[in-house]
Design a protein that fits this description.
It is a single chain. This protein is α+β, with helices and mostly antiparallel strands. The chain is built from five helices and eight strands, in the order αββββαβββαβαα. Helix 3 runs parallel beside helix 4. It is globular and about 70 Å long.
């Protein structure tokens, strides 16, 4: 019995050391990123219209959720176009990200700038995203949404456009009924 306890203890210790020290087991960036910090790097992935993957010069990757904007979800009308817009704007480009916060999924939230132009604002101006008023009080982003709505750009050409947060709530409600 003592031998079994010792073996279990050693296995637990090995698992703990592996999990906390092995890079593949711990995807958290080694450097803590702080609010208002500016990251530089190249966009190596587009998760969806409002989330990119950034590779920094020191080979760390960060998932960046764009501040101020919420784009249609995958499977939602204009979701694919929003992702394509983001990809065309920044994929494989060198960008600057000003970190504003972290979300509940530990993604960094930030403002992405490409060649002096803000991606977050460009998405809203082109009509591929909503100003995310629940988390942003930016007058510039709010005005860009109003302008895109008035011009019926992108998703605003659809009279029945559903905000992504409403779409997600509908999907949650439907899955809870099952």
């Amino acid at each position: 019995m003592k031998r079994l306890i010792l073996i279990l203890f050693l296995l637990g210790a090995v698992a703990y050391v592996y999990q906390t020290h092995h890079p593949a087991a711990n995807p958290t960036p080694s450097k803590q990123v702080k609010k208002h910090q500016v990251l530089q790097g190249r966009v190596v992935g587009i998760k969806d219209g409002d989330t990119i993957e950034l590779l920094t010069p020191d080979k760390e990757t960060h998932n960046i959720r764009l501040a101020h904007v919420d784009t249609p979800e995958r499977g939602q009308a204009f979701g694919k176009r929003a992702k394509e817009f983001t990809s065309d704007f920044c994929y494989q480009q060198r960008v600057s990200v000003t970190v504003t916060n972290k979300d509940r999924y530990q993604r960094l939230i930030g403002v992405v700038t490409v060649k002096g132009e803000e991606l977050n604002l460009a998405i809203i101006k082109a009509g591929y995203g909503w100003h995310y008023k629940q988390y942003s009080k930016s007058n510039i982003h709010a005005a860009a949404e109003t302008n895109a709505r008035n011009k019926k750009l992108g998703l605003w050409s659809d009279k029945r456009a559903v905000a992504p947060w409403d779409y997600r709530a509908q999907k949650r409600a439907a899955s809870n009924k099952k």
